[in-house]
Write a structure and sequence with these properties.
The complex is a heterodimer. Chain A is of the alpha+beta class. Chain A has 5 helices and 12 strands. Chain A folds into 2 domains: 33-78; 82-226, MucB/RseB, C-terminal domain (Phosphorylase Kinase, domain 1). Chain A has helices spanning 4-25, 36-50, 52-78, 80-87, 212-220, and strands spanning 89-94, 97-102, 114-117, 125-132, 135-141, 147-153, 159-164, 168-175, 178-185, 192-197, 203-208, 222-226. Classes of the chains: A alpha+beta, B alpha+beta.
């Protein structure tokens, strides 16, 4: 290790030699003009040197922001609900309706899938299947003529899907690990309903004159029946 | 005698009607309204499907396409349990269009639903 005193002396000697060398060649008529870029760099350095605390704080804030950004990106990548909030179906109450609309990236290249519940309550049998645009509806009926409807929307571009919830109460629920919205009717003549979005960004709905638990059981049994 | 019989039948019919109308008025439903407004080659493609939750539900619907305060076109249909419409209308670019669905179920007018899209 070279002691600091010797280093300081050597620096001072170098400085004197450099300055005397410069002064010997100095001609006031031919002053060196520094480029504007260089001048700006020096000014920047000077500003930083004049306000060291401010620039240190600025650097710390930038680091914290970057950490938040990284944590947010990881959260969105891992949590499907957070991802849905940024890039998927948005479900919200609007007036007397619960409405689904899609925001963010639309994956048009995805091949439409066919979904069916593997469980339906006893007494119901398949009545009809209808496909309109990107929406598929499967209707089941029991002996009393009560309908059970299972619907889903495969593509979400320019689609809005509303559910009249004016005759009952809505509450948050879940289908597996996916967030869902449950509608419980206040009238015997109005069916209950459950809406949710799965991991593949498909919006689903089940309605029928059945209990909350039966609606959730049907929803949790939904699987891809064919591609 | 004949006059009394006619009066009795008439009053019975009125009584039955009075019972039937409120019974139907109670038949409000958990309807879902699917709609899509998209654009292609200076045409607005307007689609909607309304589904009710009973085979006996009668749905009447009108689908309207608006640009600002001007209604460009409207289409109507009605049917039991479920109805759908798929229509096209000529439009121009750089305008915002509004698709409004007015409908009733079993004669009861429901709150209209609408969607707005900008054709850029």
């Amino acid at each position: 290790m070279i002691p600091n005193d010797i280093l300081r002396e050597a620096a001072a000697r170098t400085y004197e030699g450099f300055v005397s060398g410069l002064l010997s060649d100095y001609d006031a008529e031919y002053r060196h003009e520094f480029s504007s870029e260089f001048e700006k760099k020096i000014m920047r350095l000077k500003r930083r040197a004049d306000h060291p605390i401010f620039y240190q704080a600025l650097r710390r804030v930038a680091v914290i922001l970057l950490a938040f950004l990284f944590a947010g990106a990881v959260w969105i990548a891992v949590d499907s609900d957070a991802r849905a909030a940024f890039f998927g179906w948005i479900g919200e109450i609007s007036g007397s309706y619960f409405e689904y609309h899609h925001e963010g990236i639309t994956d048009d290249a995805a091949e439409p899938m066919d979904y069916r519940p593997s469980w339906i309550p006893d007494g119901y049998s398949e009545k009809s299947i209808s496909v309109f645009d990107d929406k598929t509806t499967v209707r089941y009926e029991n002996e009393k003529g009560e309908l059970l409807r299972f619907s889903y929307v495969n593509s979400h571009e320019n689609v809005d899907w509303s559910f009249d919830v004016s005759k009952g109460n809505t509450k948050s629920s879940s289908v597996g690990h996916c967030m869902a919205s449950l509608f419980i009717s206040e009238l015997d003549s109005v069916a209950n309903g459950l809406t949710w979005v799965n991991d593949d960004d498909i919006a689903f709905c089940v309605t029928g004159f059945i209990s909350e638990n039966e609606l959730i059981r049907i929803a949790e049994s939904v699987h891809i029946s064919k591609k | 005698m004949r006059y009394k019989s006619t009066l009795a039948i008439g009053l019975t019919l009125v009584f039955v009607l009075l019972l039937v109308i409120p019974a139907n008025a109670e038949q409000t439903r958990y309807c879902d309204v699917y709609r899509k407004l998209s654009f292609s080659n200076n045409a607005a493609i307007c689609k909607c499907e309304i589904s009710a939750d009973s085979s006996s539900d009668w749905i009447s619907a009108t689908m309207e396409l608006w640009r600002g305060t001007t209604m460009l076109n409207s289409w109507s249909t009605s049917g039991a349990e479920s109805i759908s419409m798929d229509e096209t209308e000529s439009v121009t670019r750089y305008q915002t269009y509004r698709l409004v669905i007015n409908y009733s179920v079993n004669g009861i007018t429901q709150s209209p639903v609408e969607t707005s899209k900008y054709y850029g």
